[in-house]
Design brief:
single chain; mainly beta; four-stranded antiparallel β-sheet; three-stranded antiparallel β-sheet
Length: about 110
């Protein structure tokens, strides 16, 4: 319950230079949230702009159990191809459960 995929884009990918999407059991799904958050000027606070280490979040509702999940990283700047993505599954709040996931990856250039 309350799980989500965390897709960490470790390394330099350019400012607004990489986005994440997924296909879950054939259905396209976007990542509605990320950290480093999109630039804003909420309550006149300092905008944080960075070109590295975004983590995107895709919420899961339980219907994804035993379904194939494909994660796509869309990059825009060829000079920043060497960042290292990782996919994690996390839940909040408790209960936490251990699960085993199998990740098969390939990069298409």
């Amino acid at each position: 319950p309350n799980s989500y995929l965390c897709i960490a884009l470790n390394g330099v990918h350019g400012t607004e230079g990489a986005y994440v999407a997924a296909k879950i059991d054939g259905k396209l799904v976007g990542a509605p949230d990320r950290a480093q958050s999109y630039p804003s000027n909420t309550w006149e606070y300092i905008n944080s702009r960075t070109n590295r280490n975004y983590t995107y979040y895709i919420p899961l509702d339980g219907s994804e159990v035993d379904k194939e999940i494909e994660v796509y990283i869309i990059g825009f700047e060829k000079e920043f191809e060497d960042f290292k993505p990782e996919v994690w599954i996390h839940a909040y709040p408790v209960p936490f459960e251990r699960v085993r996931i199998r990740i098969e990856g390939s990069v298409i250039r």
